[in-house]
Amino acid sequence: MERKSTIAKLTGNLLKLVAVSALMFGAVGVSQQAVAGIANTKHNLGSTGGAGNNKVSDTGEICVFCHTPHAADTTAPAPLWNKNLSNITGFTTYASLNSSTIDGEILSVGSVSIACLSCHDGTQAMDNIINAPGSGAYDATGGGATGRGYTWAGANVDVDGKMKNTTVAMLGTDLKNDHPIGIQYCGGGVTAGAPTGAGCKDGDFQGKASGTAAALQSATINSNLVWWVDTSVGTAGTREKTDMILYTRTFAAGSGPSVECASCHDPHTEANPTFLRVSNTGSGVCLSCHVK
User: What is the pLDDT of residue 27?
Assistant: First the structure.
């Protein structure tokens, strides 16, 4: 009886070990998959970046050029942000065109867009990071306009690590020729008090006022009201990376959904060209929001 009990215990322990090993393998598999998502994109600025990438030879780290687990800038609109933000008053926006086709209010550059523009405006080095790899490498200034002094390679980056004005990706500070950001979705009319889309001022947008399916969605997540536009990819009524994500800004009429850089682009995966959230075949990105 004692021998059988010992065998049973050993068998049970072995099964537990197998189960734990399986869980650990699964966790590692997920982690490697997540890393591979950005490692194979142009946002891998580390030494392991692909051919033709703007990249450094000094570190193999990938996430550090945007995020840090410690000493992050808590004033930034992106989590664990590791860069100084650009001067938010230094941009010329689409609003300056006084276009009669724009119904909604356009705010100054802010929200998640200012995080994107901390590289893509070309005014500061891409290695202008607060907490650089290595012990004692903290600098609240981010290293200044010329960055940390990494050695850069790539046709579209200068010796200081700033993006050159040689591709569309270098947006600069004049944003008049770019899709409006900081603009009210569907011309306004959608606020925290009326989040369903019934108040859309412009019927040429996905939302109840357009006569189409109620693609404009809202939900309360972590006590915050969030909005998005459902696309044909993924699960309807559930906010996913393949939806057009809208960001809360405060307009004259109250807080409501705003279109920002990351509404159309997901910086962490290049499943579609130029980091688009969905394929733009047949203008799929445009028609996710616009009814034309």
Answer: 34
